[in-house]
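Internal tracking record. Fields below are filled automatically when a chain is submitted to the structure queue. Please do not edit lines marked as system-generated. If the sequence contains nonstandard residues, flag them in the REMARKS field before resubmitting.
Queue: standard
Priority: normal
Entity type: single polypeptide chain
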Amino acid sequence: MAATKHVGAEQWVPDDPDLTRLREAVQACQGCDLFREATQGVMGDGDPGAALVLLGEQPGDQEDRAGEPFVGPAGKLLDRALADAGIEPEDVFRTNVVKHFRWSGRRGKQRIHKSPARGHVTACRPWLEAELEVVAPTGVVVLGGTAGKAVFGASFRVGEVRGRAVDWPESYPVAKPPDWVVATTHPSAVLRTDDRDAAYDALVADLRVAADLLR
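SYSTEM-GENERATED OUTPUT FOLLOWS
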């Protein structure tokens, strides 16, 4: 088992992908060890022709059970923030850099989130590349540090770049590079902070930057 732990997802990604084929194919993925403890693979969802992709870390407990991204409390907060920023929630495409839920232990019936390791992010990269090829967005909003590191590398820090447009990095080649990337915090971090109102307002302000770029 150890020899195939992080073989990468490439062999499971369809040669001529569309979103339906990707959602079907990810269920067979064994590119890393996370498939063993997850209920299912969770690909992105939303407008297949969206100008904006929202990129988070990984599915959570509720997303893993439902098979859809951003359906838990953080997803509901994100939808509200999008609307407050002037972006129609149904017009975006939501996905994560890792497609299986990593967890450790339980709190009651809820499985406790554990951040994916760098090896998991790297192994899952072919799925994200395929999604970006299919959707071909104008821009991407990266939500939080794990998503930012997946795109920009290990030195990425949300606080250093949040709320401003930067170029899609040449170090992450994709078939159709987005025109720009805006970084912000993950909505789950808003839910965890003591000053939730201020954190929410900052998230909305960052999303407004993306909204202005889409006009």
